[in-house]
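Sample 1 of the test manifest.
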Amino acid sequence: MRKLYKITMLVFLRSKSLIIPYLAVLAMFSAYTAFRFIQYMEYQNIFMTLRWFVIPCVFLIASFIYFSYELTIKLHENNMAEYFRAYRQGLWQAYGAIILCLLTLVAIPSTMFLLFMLFFYNYINVEYYPFMVHLLKVSLLYFGMSFIAGILLGTVMAAKLKSNRLAVYSLTVLFMLLNTTVTSNLFFHISYMLLNSYPLEKVLFGIKDFFTLVPHQLGSNFAIDPIYGLPTEPIRWILAGFWIIFPLTLIMSECFNHKVKKTLTAMACLVLVLSVGLFVFRGSTLVMDLRNDSYPYSDMLYYDDRPEADYRRYQTEFTISNYNMDLTVSNELHAIVKITVDNPALHRYEFTLYRGYILDEVRTEKEAIPFKREGDYISIGSLNGSDHLIFEYHGKSPKYYANRQAITLPGYFAYYPKAGRRNIFDVGQSAYVINLSPNESRYEVKVHSDLNVFCNLSGSNKTFHGKTDGVSLFAGMYDEIADNIYAEPMRRDLPQKQTIPEAEQILLDTFKRLERPQPEALKRLADKKLFQVPGNFTLNSGIEASVVMSDHITAVYCSNGSQVAENIMQSVIKPHSTDNRLEYDYLSYLFNQKDITDPFLKKPVDLQQLLQEIDEWRSLKTKLQKVNAEQYERMSKQEKAAYETDGRRMFDLDSSVNNKAALYLFYQSPHKAENFRVFYDYYTSEGKEDYMELVKRIIKGEIEHADRQ
Amino acid sequence: MLTVNNLSKRFQHKEVLLSINLVLENKVYGLLGANGAGKTTLLRCMAGLFNPQQGEVLYHGEPIHTSKSFHHDLGYLPQSFGMFQELTLYEMMDYICSLRNISPSQCPSAIARALESVNLEDKTGDRVRSLSGGMLRRAGIAQAILGDTKVMLLDEPTAGLDPSERIRFKNTISRLKQDKTILISTHIVEDVDASCDSVIVIDKGRILFNGSCAELKNIALNKVYHVKETDLAGIAGENFSLKVNETEGKVYHRILARDKQTFPCQEPSLEDGYMWLVKGMA
């Protein structure tokens, strides 16, 4: 075999159509990697750089398909396959030598990338061993197995399609496109623009996913969560393995006759069936694209159609005093949760459990209890004298993933049954709802996972216990970076030990300034554990920047106390707010986050003009809102032009009115302290008054006051 | 000894070989047949490349698929033969030596012998792409005789060869035939006449004849006539014009006729015997 390998390598090296492109690809790959590394030195963003590193992967796979096809096809174009097959295992030996030769060619960029990753790890100097393991896994999966799959795909196409280059290169282009976001956009548009069909979308994306060898697709702009890293879930390895074994068996079936051929064909079918089966039941994976089931859009789209009546009409007449949770995190979450209710005499119990978790059984210790599932809600009748209920369920959430790669299950999310009917996603706010228990329950939690799991409760060895209003679980590239501070160690904006005490002091001062009592939940923050959560938590939810629970805090951005304080205040006022722009400015001015050198802040606001602009803005808003799509279609050209002009004017005013109002009320006004108070009361009350009406009232009051003086 | 027992091969719904029975000993056999008669399919089945629907091929009494020695003893030259264009002739022969599991120490001598047999010993360092069609064909024969080949299946080995190369091929076969079973598939009757001890005629997937060249010739004994074109109307019964030639300004036909004619009889050639068979006059 050594001689065959050597001579095959000679064929490759002497073939100009192969060696020149190969060297060119190597040179381009090296130059690209170096360029991205230089960019890293400038921006210091590890995961953005890592994302850029994997982008050329699909081009490299396509190159290896080309190299392998063009090398292997020489066997067929020179009519060698026929007489090689006449010798015992002759054709298989020839293919084997070609594959070995191609593996050598693959090994060069793979090893280069692997060594570069080790260098990169040393260079970034984070000293976090799981990240190095992750980099090695990424190298092996993205730059090793996917390349090997590429060479075997090229070889099998030469073996099966022979000299039909049009078919071979069309399939290669199709394969490449399936590994880019081009097909995401295309399949999305085909499914909805043309046929408005969710099942079709599922099928199309299912096919696409099965062909996705590069999980982080070319064209994807979604940021990587450091806790997760690049996708390397078991299904990725299984798919990569499939795309190696399946073509290999087909190649082998081409080389042998009779029984061996039949056996290999049967094996290829078996591998296909097995892989498709595993793929169908792949469980929780990170899906970041346009599809309905993806992290950014899934819940937003689902809850958009849900009637509020589903949860508003039910009153909860019980609380859960104890939870005993046995959680197994494999490819998805499998849970057995035993609860104790404080009021066992009721005829009806309502619980909330996120719809993605499929309820297998509800039982007391003695018997199974019939239940009714409606989306996120579980309705149960009498408990037949028992005060215990056991829920057995399994499933996943597209956003709050739990699999073999990472776990992000915050305590405010209904990944375990919560008493009563609660809303999961607030469509009006376009955000997940913070669902905490009204009481602190006692928890016993056992987690079965290969990952090192971090929890707000005390305990070790994946067994936790204690009292809280919500259990949060985090795992993956996650660690306790300081006493009671947990974070993704790869982030640059890590919380510091003094972050929470600082935030607590700032909040204390702020509430003093506001002359309002500090909410109980915001006191003794420094005693709580802090969990920094992935940045993507705010991707489709504006209220998760910071959540304060009875014994812990989750926060996305917490590099300094002021930022945490602002985010915590946002979580206090957000549930009542309907205007994002003014609220954002309110918080910025309240926590002195504005750049005071900004010339905009120095220019005095003309209040009369502001009042006129507010009226104009509101009148335009009302006028434009009255026009529906049908009416717009019926408009004449001139009417449409006028409508567009009004729209542009409203857009300009929208920005200027809010900015000016905030600037005056919270910065330039002599009564700004009072204004902060008024707006705090407004934001934390249940009042339905339009915020701009309040702005007008305050400004008019101040004008009158000034006139009187 | 290579035995073909009741071999049938079908592609889709087309029967290509029908109950073929053959016993090949250490001799040179010519497999004669028109294009599409089933020659290549028969050779491929005998080389183990095709799986027949019925029957089997035995080598020394053992099915070729289970025989340990068959693939080692087999030398096969396909109808269209090629090599890696980027290699030298020696490198390519060395590559084939490896495929045929010839031990590395024996490779240089085996290659030298094989190339010498086909008069290509001076081309060892030449790239395959620089060889002429005839040289490449001879290189194909060389790869088929590499090592200790005992069975040679050559599919149209003389196709594309010029007359001098065909003579060289004939000489090569004469040199090699000692203790070997050689089956040469061809549709060129002269090649069989020149190189083969026995001839097998195949037509539409059936064996029409299996015997010596003399026996095939004898089939047409007293059936071949030399007839002037002007006398053609005088031929009685079923007949067939084999060849037309012109001698001293007069056109003559070589006629195969079933009934006794008044015209002078000719000595039958191998081609006459073959044509007698394939035209269904036997």
